Automatic annotation (TrEMBL):
InterPro entries: AMP-dep_synth/lig_dom, ANL_N_sf. It comes from the Eukaryota. Residues 15-113 form the AMP-dependent synthetase/ligase domain. The gene is Slc27a2_0. This is Long-chain-fatty-acid--CoA ligase. Belongs to the ATP-dependent AMP-binding enzyme family. Signal peptide: none annotated.
Length: 135
């Protein structure tokens, strides 16, 4: 039924539905930390607010994301979906020419990277932008 709905239900729609119906239900377990739907909804809303208000990010702008496999990846993706921004997922292990090629192919106007990626060769100097880099 969901696939035949017009417009089609998105993963964001399904997430929001679960967050409304079962906010305290566990969604993520990372190491010893449990994140509920409510936790992830709150964090993704804060991230969306920061991306739109502080960076002026608007719908339709592609954002490249260079984050390790951690919970922040989930709420970053949700935040971008809430803003209507396509997300180009970049592999944290890729560097140099391969990373440059991925960035060019994505046509991203902004790169979000974790602090661990700062100053890495091929990523760009993120020290001035607190984890953000505009190609």
């Amino acid at each position: 039924r969901r696939l035949s709905r017009r417009p089609a239900a998105t993963l964001l729609d399904v997430f929001r539905q679960h967050a409304r119906r079962q906010p305290r239900r566990p969604l993520l377990l990372f190491q010893e930390e449990v994140y509920t739907f409510e936790d992830v909804e709150r964090r993704s809303n804060r991230a969306a607010w920061a991306l739109s208000r502080r960076l002026g990010l608007r719908s339709g702008r592609t954002v490249a994301v260079l984050l390790p496999n951690e919970p922040a990846y989930v709420w970053t993706w949700l935040a971008l979906a809430k803003l209507g921004c396509p997300m180009a997922c970049l592999n944290c292990n890729v560097r140099g020419r391969a990373l440059r090629h991925a960035l060019e192919a994505a046509q991203a106007t902004l790169v979000l990277a974790s602090p661990g990626e700062r100053g890495q060769r091929g990523v760009g100097d993120t020290r001035r932008h607190g984890g953000l880099w505009s190609p």
